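Internal QA ticket QA-208
Title: Verify multi-chain structure generation after dependency bump
Assignee: T.L.

Test input:
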Amino acid sequence: MILKSQVEWALHCCAILSGLPEGRYLSTKALAELHGLPKEYLSKALQSLSQAGLVHTTLGPSGGYRLAKAANELSFLDVVEAVEGSGRTFVCQNIRANNPCRPKGYCESGPCAIARIMWEADEAWRAALRKVTFADLGKILHQEISPEIWSGTFDWVLKRAG
Amino acid sequence: MILKSQVEWALHCCAILSGLPEGRYLSTKALAELHGLPKEYLSKALQSLSQAGLVHTTLGPSGGYRLAKAANELSFLDVVEAVEGSGRTFVCQNIRANNPCRPKGYCESGPCAIARIMWEADEAWRAALRKVTFADLGKILHQEISPEIWSGTFDWVLKRAG
DNA sequence: CGAATTACGGATACATAATGTCCCTATTCG
DNA sequence: CGAATAGGGACATTATGTATCCGTAATTCG
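Actual output:
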């Protein structure tokens, strides 16, 4: 059970977008170049973000993406679910119903206990991702990235931001 | 990102095995029949449990599986990891290293902040599964399964347990 | 002892999903 | 108008999950 690499890409892209000045946009091409990713395929991940309403887009030259809301209101969970979907990691196929000891037509009282426990773990995972925003990430990155790379990347991005 | 159905199977099988009297064994055939699963394929899941040391096996007629430790010492996480592996759900491909603004040969100070956050969520998921044992599950099931099905299944299993 | 039954592991086939590429369209900027 | 962009559909490739089959060694029972 491994998350798609598009999730990683989307997170890194949002990290960059969260540092973009108000009203500026950054293109797929620039984001792909910055991360060494295939432009066409990265585009699919960005489209997922767009469809989820997490980013705003413009067309034409100088077009691209920006966050649709403030960085402190965009959580990791938002991005992960936009790309990966919001389904559960555990799907209950209700195999208890195959128990030959059951009376025919027996009706379940509710979801399987095993599934409920697995879903609680899923929810713990979601809760952990929900509480971290891209404002939080920005602070962490600002602390641990060397100042030259930080400002160098910032300039690189600004030069390409429409 | 969805867990293998083998995880569900293994959990249900351990639930049954945890109700087995001391020293008795239950075969793949019986477990498959009880859950309506393909015997040959379920066998792979049970082998994973065996390799992880979670169950004990015997060969020959009247052979099969039993738990290798007490139900209150076997956690959901044990079973999930035995089948699904203990790797993280988020794999960091370190795409930050592709940043063209970096000096050549630049050496990372540590794992990517994004990866660390994702791994913390993974750990929250694991922690939730680690704290639930099959003794806990047994109590829950005993409360919510109708007495006829409970004892009917118990008899069915005992009749086939070697 | 011999036959039946079992766990175990390897080989193989198939379906589904992830990954990646290509091309066309509508829109927007200069 | 021409260039650059997001968006989306079609397709190829690869990896993974699902499932089946068969051979081997060990064990039980008659």
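Spot checks passed. The two ends of chain B are 38 Å apart (CA to CA).
Status: verified.
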